[in-house]
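Q: My labmate handed me this sequence with no annotations at all. I'd like to see what the chain might look like in three dimensions before we decide whether it's worth expressing. Could you predict it?
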Amino acid sequence: MSGLPSFRAVMLMVIAVLTVTVAAGGLVVILGDDLVETAHEPVRRQQRPQQSPAPRLDQIVPTAEPVKDFGEGGPGVTATPPRVLAVAAGAVPKQTRFRLGELKHVQKVAVVDAGAVKVSGTGLNLLAVDPADFRSWTPQPVADQPAVWSALARGELVADAATMRRFGMILGAVYQVDGGPRLRVAASASLGLKGVDGLVSADLGRSLGFAPGVAVLLHGKPGKISESGVRRLLGKKAQVVMLDAAARAAKRQQPQQPQQQPQQVNVGRPGSYLELYKAAATRCPGLSWTVLAAIGQVESSHGRNNGPSSAGALGPMQFMPATWKHYGVDGDGDGKKDIWSPYDAVPGAANYLCANKAGQGGERLRKAIWFYNHSWDYVNKVMGIAQAYAKTYA
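A: Here is what I predict for the chain of 394 residues:
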């Protein structure tokens, strides 16, 4: 005997393998009014990773290629920050604009639209601006960041950093405007505009019904522009804010305080997986970020094992390519839906779960997770990890 298996034994083994493969073929699941094509996904068996302490989500930084925005590498913009911000009772006439420009020490004038929106009952005061024209009216670090102006051009929100902190807003999250559209917070920065919570594009401002031409910005020597002169031209009902009040006060104090440096501009992408999961969950009202985090842990240990899997699933959220084609999203606004990028994959997972009514909770949530990977053991595991995350990050 040579010790090699017989031809008949080999054929029996091949037939057995083919039988198992056919039995695990693709399927379309129809449950009541739910029709979700699973792109012929087999059940993905999870590899058993070696046991190690679970990493903290706020310490894991998602990795992907840098965002490439138009305008990068162009000529620099010289910032001419406003010294005065005023909001008139009505549209400022052209003649009044000329007279404002003739005030002593005024070097530059801009008039933009303004309005207020409510997000879950919370009011936000916004300016609606043309990105190209308004760029020089922001602090130099903001003016130098092309992604800020790309975001405005896409119809997204650039929020003031203080507003982000005050209301607990999340970079990259999508917020529903009461009675209006959903706005994605694409960037945050210290805008230097007291009383202004953020910027949107002029086009978006018009669609939101903002008051045209009521906000006035004046640039000139710090502490020199006459407040009374501005009020005289705009009328008694105008609100006037002296943005250079610190410079005026410094003249009355000795020694002069050093000027505070502008804070860093945060654009487009959450800085940790914790922030990313929280931002992505806002795409599906009712879906807890802990469910996304649990799926991310099971599927790739938060981007540390991106595949391909034995079933052909790819990326940090382990999407089958055909499923990604239908449910993938451009989460960071870089113009492409990248299955390998966590900034796209995590919100894509939220989109897929929401399509299966995960936001309704209860059994709907469990079914949505089952659609993600056809195993009730998988569902139970995800739910258990989600509960653990909820306790850890409460």
